[in-house]
UniProtKB/TrEMBL annotation:
This is Alpha-L-arabinofuranosidase B arabinose-binding domain-containing protein. It comes from Actinoplanes couchii. It comes from the Bacteria. Belongs to the glycosyl hydrolase 43 family. Pathway: Glycan metabolism; L-arabinan degradation.
C-alpha cells in the first residue's frame, strides 16, 4: 500500500508541474549518469569552436572527438566562444548558444568589444548528437550603441513559459560605457523579444560572465543561484529568474577574485551539480595564470562562505575555456559516447588500385594520399545519406564536423553543410558492390546516378565508369 501511495503522489506532483507550466525535468524521467562539458580552447586557428568533454564523476574529464572540435561555426565571424548547452524542460530538444567572435582572425579586443558582432550563434538538436547548421540570432541590435554580444547563457523560465537568454553587451548608459548583462525571452531560439537590462553593478564596474543554476527544493533558501564575474565572483540567490536577487557574498575567503582584490584571479564561472547529491561545484577559469578551470565545492549554496576549494580533479588534454556543463541521462550519455567517445567507429576509404593511399581532405580538396598527416584528415563518420537515408550514405569529416564530402562541378571537396537540398544531394552516395572487386565497395552519386566516386591523378571526382582502369579507380575498401 505505501508503494502505491508513493506512485500516486509522484503522478500528482508531475501533473501539478505541467499545470503550472513546467514540463517534467529530464531528471524526473531518467537519473543522471554522467556529464558533458562544452567549451572552447583558446585563440589558436581552430580553438574558437565548440569542443566537448565527458566525465563520469563530474571532476575528471576526457576530451571527446579525439580532442578536436565537435561543431564548427560557418556563420558570422566563423568562430565561437563561451558556449552554453540548454536542454528543454522535458528533455526532447537541445540548443548550444555561443559568442560570435574569433580573435584568431586578427580582430583586436578593442574592435571586438566596440564594433563586434551583436549576434549569437545557435545550434539546435533533438538528440544531443545530430545538430542543425549554425544560425545567427540578433540579440543586441536593439541596444543603443551596442558594441558586442558576449558570453551568452539561457535558462527555462517557468514563470513565463519560455527561455531567458542573457549575455553581456558593451554600451553607453547614463554616460557610462561598460559591459552590462542584458536579456531577451524566446520560445524557439529564433525570434526574441526586445533586449532589457538585467544586471548593472553601478559606478564603473563592468560585468561579462554570469551563470544561473536552479536548485531543487530551494536548498539554502532560494530556487536559483547566480555566480557573476564582476570584480569578485559574486554569489546571489533569487526565487524567480527575472525577480529580485539577493547578494550572498563572494569567494574572497578562498583568495579568489575577478581582479578587484587580487589573489587567484579567475573568470567564466560554470555551475555543475553532482549527480544524485546535494553538492555543487562552481568551476572558475584561472585565466590570469593560465592554469585553466578549477572547482570550488558547496553542499549548501545559501551562503558564499560554504564554498571550499578542492583537489582530485583533471581536465583532460585540451585547455578548457569558458563553457557550460550538462548533466546527462543514461540515454544521452550513450548517444554522446557512441558518436564522440573513444570507442566511436571512425572509417577510412582505402584505394583499390593504390592500396597504400587513403581518401583524405587537404585544404578542403579531396584526394588519395599515403601516410596521411594528420591522420584525422583521412577519418570520416559514415552516416545515413543526407538526401536519402535508405541505402545511401554521406561522409562527415571527423576533424571538420559538419563538413561532408560533396561534389561540385563533378569535383570532390570537403564543404560545410549549408542545410540546402542541393548540398544534401551532392553529399549523398549509394554504397554498392565494388566495380573492380565485389568484396570492396563503390559509391554511386545520388543525384548523378550514372557517375561514381573515383580518383584521377589522385584527386577525387565523380565520373561515368566503363573501362577496367576506371572501375579500379572507383573501387574502395571501407576500413576502421
Amino acid at each position: 500500500m505505501p508503494r502505491i501511495l508513493t506512485r500516486i503522489s509522484n503522478i500528482l506532483a508531475t501533473s501539478v508541474l505541467f499545470l503550472a507550466g513546467l514540463a517534467a525535468p529530464a531528471s524526473a524521467l531518467d537519473p543522471f549518469t554522467g556529464y558533458l562539458m562544452a567549451h572552447f580552447i583558446g585563440e589558436s586557428a581552430r580553438g574558437e569552436q565548440i569542443y566537448l568533454a565527458h566525465s563520469k564523476d563530474g571532476l575528471n574529464w576526457t576530451d571527446l572527438n579525439a580532442g578536436g572540435p565537435a561543431l564548427l561555426s560557418t556563420v558570422g565571424t566563423k568562430g565561437v566562444r563561451d558556449p552554453a548547452i540548454v536542454r528543454s524542460p522535458n528533455g526532447d530538444k537541445y540548443w548550444i548558444i555561443a559568442t560570435d567572435l574569433r580573435i584568431a582572425s586578427g580582430t583586436s579586443w578593442g574592435d571586438a568589444s566596440t564594433k563586434g558582432s551583436k549576434n549569437l550563434v545557435v545550434w539546435e538538436s533533438t538528440d544531443l548528437v545530430n545538430w542543425s547548421v549554425p544560425r545567427l540570432i540578433n540579440v543586441a541590435g536593439g541596444i543603443s550603441g551596442a558594441g558586442d554580444a558576449w558570453a551568452p547563457e539561457a535558462i527555462w523560465n517557468p514563470a513565463t513559459g519560455d527561455y531567458v537568454i542573457y549575455w553581456a553587451t558593451n554600451s553607453t548608459l547614463n554616460g557610462v560605457t561598460k559591459h552590462r548583462i542584458w536579456y531577451v525571452r524566446t520560445s524557439d531560439f529564433k525570434t526574441v523579444t526586445a533586449p532589457q537590462l538585467y544586471i548593472d553593478r553601478g559606478s564603473g564596474q563592468g560585468i561579462i560572465d554570469t551563470q544561473i543554476v536552479e536548485v531543487a527544493n530551494s536548498l539554502g533558501g532560494y530556487r536559483y543561484y547566480r555566480a557573476s564575474a564582476d570584480g569578485q565572483i559574486t554569489i546571489e540567490g533569487a526565487n524567480t529568474i527575472l525577480g529580485t536577487w539577493t547578494r550572498l557574498g563572494d569567494l574572497q575567503h578562498l583568495g579568489i577574485s575577478n581582479g578587484a582584490t587580487g589573489g587567484n584571479v579567475v573568470e567564466g564561472p560554470m555551475w555543475a551539480q553532482t549527480n544524485g547529491q546535494n553538492e555543487w561545484h562552481l568551476w572558475v577559469d584561472q585565466y590570469a595564470t593560465g592554469r585553466g578551470y578549477m572547482p570550488v565545492r558547496s553542499t549548501n549554496l545559501g551562503a558564499a562562505t560554504n564554498f571550499t576549494t578542492r583537489t582530485g580533479y583533471s581536465l583532460g588534454t585540451t585547455t578548457k575555456r569558458h563553457g557550460s556543463i550538462l548533466n546527462l541521462t543514461a540515454a544521452e550519455e550513450t548517444r554522446v559516447l557512441a558518436k564522440w567517445g573513444t570507442s566511436a567507429v571512425l572509417k577510412r576509404l582505402q584505394s583499390y588500385n593504390n592500396q597504400t593511399r587513403y581518401v583524405r581532405h587537404s585544404n578542403f580538396d579531396v584526394r588519395i594520399d599515403a601516410s596521411v598527416s594528420p591522420a584525422l584528415d583521412s577519418q570520416f563518420r559514415v552516416v545515413p545519406g543526407l538526401a536519402n537515408s535508405s541505402g545511401y550514405v554521406s561522409f562527415e569529416s571527423v576533424n571538420y564536423p559538419g563538413h561532408y564530402l560533396r561534389h561540385w562541378d563533378y569535383d570532390l571537396q570537403l564543404a560545410a553543410n549549408d542545410g540546402t537540398t542541393a548540398f544534401a544531394a551532392d553529399a549523398t552516395f549509394k554504397q554498392v558492390a565494388g566495380l573492380a572487386d565485389s568484396s570492396w565497395s563503390s559509391f554511386q552519386s545520388y543525384n548523378y546516378p550514372t557517375r561514381y566516386l573515383r580518383h584521377y591523378n589522385y584527386l577525387l571526382r565523380i565520373d561515368p565508369i566503363s573501362t577496367t582502369t576506371e572501375k579500379a579507380d572507383a573501387t574502395f575498401r571501407v576500413v576502421s
